Structure formats: C-alpha cells, structure tokens
Here is the input.
Amino acid sequence: MGKAIFTIKQDSLGKTFYETSLKGHELLCFPTLNKGTAFTREEREQLELEGLLPYAVESLQLQVDRAYQQFGKFQTALQKNVFINALHDSNEVRFYKLLLDHITEMLPIVYTPTEGLAIEEYSHEYRRPRGLYISYPDRDCINELIEERGGQDVDIVLVTDSEAILGIGDQGVGGIGISVAKLVVYTLAAGINPSRVLPVVLDVGTNNETLLNDPFYMGWRNPRVIGPDYDDMIDKFVRAINKTFPSILVHWEDFGRSNARRILGKYRNKICTFNDDIQGTGAIAAAGLIAASNSIETRLRDHKIVIFGSGTAGCGIGDQFVHWMIKDGLTEKEARQKIWPIDKQGLLLSDMDDLTDAQKVYARDPEEVASWSRDNKNIITLEEVVKQVQPTVLVGTSTKPGAFTEGIIRDMAKHVDRPIIFPLSNPTKLCEARPSDIVKWTDNKALIATGSPFPTCTYEDKMIRIGECNNAYIFPGIGLGTVVAKAKHISDDMFAVAVEAMAKHCPVYNDSYAPLMPVLEEVRKISRTIALAVAKQAQKEGMAEPMSEEDLEKAISEAMWEPKYIPIKPFP
Here is the structure.
C-alpha cells in the first residue's frame, strides 16, 4: 500500500493533530486535510500557504453558512448534486458539516433519488475521479491497484459492478457514484471516518446501448463479462482486498439479480461481508413491518403479504419477513406460504422455467390458483392477486410507477382495516404510488412507508408526514457495530438485533397514526443503538473479542467521526 501522506497524533495534553508531508497547493487540493480559509496564521506560515488564500481566517460554521447560501442559488436537483460533490472534492470537513446541518434537505441530493440521475449523467458531468476503478482489462493487476491506492487503513470497502443501480439498471462505470454516495451515508448516519473507506466500481463492461454509443462514455466499451470470467474477476478482487485489508468489511451494492445472492452466498462465511440490496433493504422493511404490526396489534404470523417486484430486493424483503414470522411461531414452509410473489411473469408459479433460486422458494403451486383469472398475456396480475388473497401487506419493489392503482388500493382497503403499504421503488419517479393518493384512497387508514422522500401531505386538514423506508437508517449502524467489534462475519442474528433496535425507533411502534419512520435528524442516535446491539450479538456468537458493554459504548462513541477542523503541522 502507498505511503501515508498524513498521520494522526496526540500532543502532551492528549489533543489530536495531523502531521502531513503536503504543503501549499498540494495541501489545498487534498480534501481530507484542506481547511480553506480556516487555516490559522500559524498553519499558513508552517504549511507554505501564505499568499494562496484570502487574508481572513474564518470559522467552519461561517464557511458552511456561505456554502448553504451558494447551494440555494441552484435551481435543479442535479445542479445541486454537482455543487455539493464539488465541495466533497475540495474540503471534506465542510462538506459533511453542511450535510449534517441540513440532512433532511440534502440527503436526497447526495443519495436517492438525485444520485440516480447523477449516475446516469456521470460521463457528462464528470469533474474528477473519486474511489478505485477496477476495469476488466486490468484484472491481472488487481493486487497492485489495491496495494498502491495510498492513504490510510480502510475499515469499509463498498463495491458495485453497476448492473442494477437503484431502479435505473445497468450504468457501467457511472456506478462508482452509488459507492461514493453510500459511503457518504455511512459517515453522515454513523460517523464512519471518511478517510477509512474505499468506494470501488468493478467495470466489467455494460449492456447499456445508450452508454456504449455515447462518445462521452468513460468506461470500458464492451458488453458485460459473464460466466467463469466474471466469477474469476470477483474472486481476484475479494482475495486482493482481503490480503491488503484483512479485517475489512466488504459491502456489496447494486449487483444484478443473477449475481447478487450468489456472490453473497459464496463469500459471507469467508470474509466479513453483506449485501445491502438483499439484507439491508429486507431489514429496514422488516423493522417497519414489526413497528406497524405492533401499533395495530397484529401478529406477524397473521399477515398475508404481496410483494410486487420479486427481484434482489423483493426476495430479500421476503426472506426477512419469513425470518420474523418463524420467530412468531410458524414453520419455514408456513411462513413462505404467507408471501405472494409477483414479478414480470405475473404471480410466480412453481412450473415457470425462468425463476431464480431466490424466487423458487416463494413460487406458488399452479393448482392453488387454477381458477384465478389471467390477462391476455396469460399472467396472473397484481390486481387479481390482491382480489383473491386480500393481503394485509403490499410491498412494491418493481420500479413500475403507478402500479398500485386506485382500484387495487381500494380493493385492499375493503378487506383490511389498516393496510400496510410500502411502495419502495426508487428513485421517486419509479414509485408504485404517490403516498398522498394512498392516504386518500384508504381514508388515511393505510400505514405507509416509501423508498424515496415525499413531501408531507394533507388529509381532512391533517398534516401527514410520510415515513421513508430508507436503508440509511440501518446499514450504517450495522457497519459501525461490525467495525468497532472487529467482527469476523455478519450473521443473520446480527441483522435481527438491528431490526429489533430499529423497529423501536419507529414513531408508529406505539401510535398507529404516527409516521412509520423517524426523521433523519435522529439517524445518528439510531445508528448508535443499532451498532451496540450488533456488536454485542457478534460477541455473543463468538465472532468478536469480548468487551464490556461500557467499553463497547465508549468504543462506538470514539469511532464516530465528527466534521471539525483539527490542527495540522508539517512532518518534522
């Protein structure tokens, strides 16, 4: 690994400071250490910054206030995204302080839904690189690419191959944007030190013809690598990253349905790893279901659940729901029978020959639905499933905007006093139904959580805040607890305790007319609670060294990075 260009030290009074080899323009171009106009007179003299900055020495808060004023001048979400990412590239502390001060307003700009548009426009809006780009032609030197990346030690690597970015599909090299964005969320939500993370894109080509025909496209212009060649590259990456950073947490993000679950299954017991699309999405949805069910006094085992969009995320949600219904006394078979999966083929049936392994365990017996109506394409539609099943829970992960029609929602509400409805597809334009419409169609009886942020809506003069079923509430805390505990693996029960902790933070847990999810301003408190639960569970399972709860809490607090300027000195 490359030589560190700065180190963290403490003086005789125990105060932290940085020592660095960087000076002058090089220091101002290094976002981890750059303070801009906040460099003190002494630092400017010692670090050869005199004459390179305006005379005034400003506070961090004044810099942030100026940046927020500048932010407000941009008209579109994409323009705001580009502006904020430019701050990220110039001054990391100011960037994170700005976001934390305005997290509800700005998280949708740096994360979903705006990040989806930014990824689509990556090659057109490109300013400077961030993260590690590993392209298929460089597959035989992955070790060297990782070893020579330079900088500090790494706690979390977040990697994508960009095949299934958010709800917009194959985005090639632009997928680096989701790796960067998710790591930003780790820092905002759980205080993961931004200098100890590594965003990675595995550029294995793209099947997106728009990108391949775009003269500005910056990735490897080739159809996607598949089969043994693809698997070999993944294996080389895992071995290389584990060799350089043996205690690292590997977070997989937005891999296609044919690879995501398979990769997780292959490596989850070999390295410390999880897949957020499968496990994180399932976990936050399960927390929402538990909280909603508690408030309306309905047992989990009694739900009938329709999942519209049974891909990676939909099946991951199904798996979490099954886990919790088993905890409530059902057998695995009984729990799976409570779930009705729908995908592009309509209701999934066991005699279909194009099902993934994850879908097969939920597919229904054709004889069970032999009398049900089919459309002109011979598929059993969502409308028919809702009519026949009379579900208590409806989940959307389909990326089919408007799929939850007024007729379907009203039909569901006829049979269920308090329907639980999760239109989770993102970005916002791909949501299955607007929550304001669901509120109206159910006379405000539905318990709603969405996958993207929606504004407060009004019903009969009541202001109704819509809860966002956002993975940002859960995966950062899981990562923090795993890193602090130095866990060897992430088990199902580590996710389970995270779900339990999250559910109790949901406002709806004790009030069925409260928002289903908390406000984003509470996310650091939530992450702290989840991290403690996850770390304790890792110790309980023998996957982490024993530590008292008091010491764990202290370690979690010490690990939570805060955006503030630290004194900087040149190397002696």
